[in-house]
Amino acid sequence: MNLGVVTLLLAIVGGASGQYYDYDFALSIYGLSSPNCAPECNCPESYPSAMYCDELKLKSVPMVPPGIKYLYLRNNQIDHIDEKAFENVTDLQWLILDHNLLENSKIKGRIFSKLKQLKKLHINYNNLTESVSPLPKSLVDLQLTNNKIQKLGSFDGLVNLTFVHLQHNQLKEDTVSAAFKGLKSLEYLDLSYNQMAKLPSGLPASLLTLYLDNNKISNIPDEYFKRFNGLQYLRLSHNELADSGVPGNSFNVSSLLELDLSYNKLKNIPTVNENLENYYLEVNELESK
Ligand SMILES: *[C@@H]1O[C@H](CO)[C@@H](O)[C@H](O)[C@H]1NC(C)=O
Ligand SMILES: *[C@@H]1O[C@H](CO)[C@@H](O)[C@H](O)[C@H]1NC(C)=O
Ligand SMILES: *[C@@H]1O[C@H](CO)[C@@H](O)[C@H](O)[C@H]1NC(C)=O
Ligand SMILES: *[C@@H]1O[C@H](CO)[C@@H](O)[C@H](O)[C@H]1NC(C)=O
């Protein structure tokens, strides 16, 4: 096996989730890299619009040739992005930068908002302290987990933003409340493993999945969950909910299919709707009646 093949295998393992086109990609594993690829990276011949530059100890973004739409730069040591890094690929659709050393101050200019076709932006496991901005209106899927984010910019105008992953950061409720107002397409929001002491206000009514587990939330405002039209999956485990902070009908929401309230301090079992399929309550302080 030569080094190129090893790198490819790592790329496949690293992106094992079904949302990547790894099946097509696997078929081409022994194929040659197409000629105008960056020399250190791999652009599979049968999938030439993808460029794989994972695990190469890169310190900066390599040359990205025109025609690339899917760019993988995972597991490197990239600590800055120059203003012109993507000048030849303004139609980039996926940009995957997980496991690097990026800080906000070293990401120059409006590099993301210039990418008018960008749908997927993943900067998980880096050194960000704020969300990156501005972002292009085309964005659908934003992942910024496992950083040190304390502050969110506004996601105003991101009409197609559907999936947001922000788990394992240092977010408090105020910055979250301000950020998501007005988003019309947001369906999936993961804010677990942050530092929220209250439920954020202003979350979009379109949410179907809301994960808030592993925060420090101690109460639910009256009717809080009524604003969501179709909320199906709600996780609030590992918070500080006690009976006094949970109004009687808080979780009686007809669209809910899954509710996780485990690892709180509840003594009574909150009322739920009959449509609920999965209800998790372990490790509370339930009193048998
Ligand atoms: C963009 O393409 C031009 C012309 O081929 C080249 O000189 C330049 O280095 C490229 N920029 C990047 C960042 O790859
Ligand atoms: C970036 O994050 C890594 C891993 O968490 C850490 O070792 C390093 O000190 C951080 N660098 C800076 C400049 O914060
Ligand atoms: C949002 O998505 C729709 C459907 O895919 C698309 O037609 C539209 O151009 C997108 N809007 C933006 C601003 O990218
Ligand atoms: C739950 O809400 C429904 C309306 O959605 C209502 O008819 C029902 O009485 C409520 N259940 C309880 C126990 O309050």
UniProtKB/TrEMBL annotation:
GO molecular function: collagen binding
Signal peptide: 1-18
SUPFAM superfamilies in the cross-refs: L domain-like
Cell compartments where the protein resides: Secreted, Extracellular space, Extracellular matrix
All copies of domain LRRNT, residue ranges: 36-70
Keywords associated with the record: Extracellular matrix, Glycoprotein, Leucine-rich repeat, Proteoglycan, Repeat, Secreted, Signal, Sulfation
Gene Ontology cellular component annotations, sorted alphabetically: extracellular space
Main location: secreted
InterPro entries the record matches: Leu-rich_rpt, Leu-rich_rpt_typical-subtyp, LRR_dom_sf, LRRNT, SLRP
Superkingdom of the organism of origin: Eukaryota
Homology family: Belongs to the small leucine-rich proteoglycan (SLRP) family. SLRP class II subfamily.
Subunit structure: Binds to laminin.
Protein name (Swiss-Prot/TrEMBL): Lumican
Source species: Leptonychotes weddellii (Weddell seal)
